[in-house]
Amino acid sequence: MHGSCFVSGFLGVGSAVRPGLERNILVRNRRPAVGSGRLRMVISDSKPAAAVSKPTQKPLSPCFSSGPCKKRPGYSLDALADAPLGRSHRSKLAIGKLREAYSLTKSLLGLPEGYQVAIVPASDTGAVEMAMWSMLGERPVDICHWESFGKGWYGDVVKELKIKEVNEITADYGQLPDLTKVNPAHDVVFTWNGTTSGVRVPAGAEWISDDREGVTICDATSGIFAMSLPWHKLDVVTYSWQKVLGGEAAHGMIILSPKAIERLESYTPPWPMPKIFRMTKKGKLDEKLFDGSVINTVSMMCVEDYLDALKWVQDLGGVPGVEAKSMGNLKVLEDFVGSRSWIHFLAADEKIRSNTSVCLTLDLPKEKVKEMEKLLEAENVALDINSYRDAPPGLRIWCGATVEAEDLQALCEWLEYTYEQVK
Q: Rounded CA gap, 414 and 420, in Å?
């Protein structure tokens, strides 16, 4: 079952909690020395570390990818038994499933009155592009980015939409830019959680004015459901199912506030609008899109999987329960990193440190980090934990709530072992 990221569900993940990580015991080194013509024993002050033994336990699931992410604990394909396969997505049964998904999404996220939800094409990327192509250009735009995806949104606004008045507010990987530079009279585009840098927006987003004139477009794909979002400050929120929920890829979600809807109905961009980006008809919001109709055909199997994930969130106690479990997972890594000198968080400031996509750097050259990754994969301990291609060399470990703390504890033992093997 090598490489399977939901096999742990059948093995009963979480049924037995492993003991805490053992610390290596340093033993003083006794060595012979010559003095006054006779042999005597000297106790050295140096404390070389004992050799790190190969761990005897492995994570029950090796899936720590930051997307697509591990399926929920206990997952099996039986969860898809009620999917209306072979039925039209316009059938009464299918539309009922879509409406259920929208209703449960609104309830779990605690969306305010008047906020609308829809499934859209092309994952989170499609949802962000849909918002930018439909709404930007009416006023200047502030783009805040501190990792690769946010930088991509900046590039699209400048090179594709060719908006003239664009302010770039940026920071290096591991840092957060000065978000107080955002002008409330401008539109703003930003990521809530930088999936490739492990840096998130601090809770509350106080830098967003309650009296703003512009709209806020927030890519929240690796944060939503695992981080509390201040909905009154967010006008467009996008995400996909394959991050915190452990759902399937290719489908995107878009959430619109009344302010965002007003922008759609009052502003027509000067460029042609592709069909998959259209949210209005005859100058008004296409309400059918937010009531069970879709722009293009959806996979009803994936919708069923999304419903299963939402019900899992409900069973955990909603967003607070998911966030608490994710924070507990992060704590496992914080305890490990805090007691070792050779591994570090890319986000050194814990106030901006992600509790989902956790990025680490190591005191190793890039090729040695690659050796570590290969050893961990060969042992079926950890899959797909390499840092993003544009990020500093290191590891990226998913700590969302679909991952179990005891699996992270086991992984930490293997991180220490493989580090000692390659250094």
A: 10
Rounded distance between C-alpha atoms, residue 106 and residue 116, angstroms: 8
**Domain 77-313, CATH among 3.30.428.10, 2.40.50.180, 3.40.50.300, 3.40.640.10:** 3.40.640.10
CB 372 within 8 A of CB 417: no
Choose the weakest-confidence range: 14-28, 61-75, 145-159, 235-249: 14-28
Q: Which of 42-46, 178-182, 204-208, 340-344 has the lowest mean pLDDT?
A: 42-46
For the domain covering 8-74+318-422, report its CATH number: 3.90.1150.10
Provide the residue ranges of all domains of the chain, joining segments of one domain with +: 8-74+318-422, 77-313
> In the block, which residue shows the tokens 């399926």?
71
Residue by residue, DSSP assigns 276-328 as GG--EETTEE-GGGGTT--SS---HHHHHHHHHHHHHHHHTTHHHHHHHHHHH
Coil, helix or strand at residue 216: strand
**Ordered alpha helix ranges (H), 27-122:** 92-109
DSSP E strands in 311-388: the ranges are 343-345, 357-362
Question: Is the whole-model pTM more than 0.85?
Answer: yes
Q: What are phi and psi of 253, to 5 degrees?
A: -130, 140
Residue showing tokens 């544009």? 390
End-to-end Cα separation, the chain, in angstroms = 30
Instruction: Give Cβ neighbours of residue 21 (< 8 Å, ≥ 6 apart).
Output: 335, 336, 409, 412, 413
Q: Strands 284-285 and 280-281: what pairing?
A: antiparallel
| Residue 16 banded pLDDT, cuts 50, 70, 90 | very low
What is residue 403's predicted lDDT score, i.e. its pLDDT? 98
Report which of 295, 392, 313, 414 is spatially closest to residue 345, judged by C-alpha positions.
Answer: 392
Tokens of 417: 């072992």
pLDDT at 411: 98
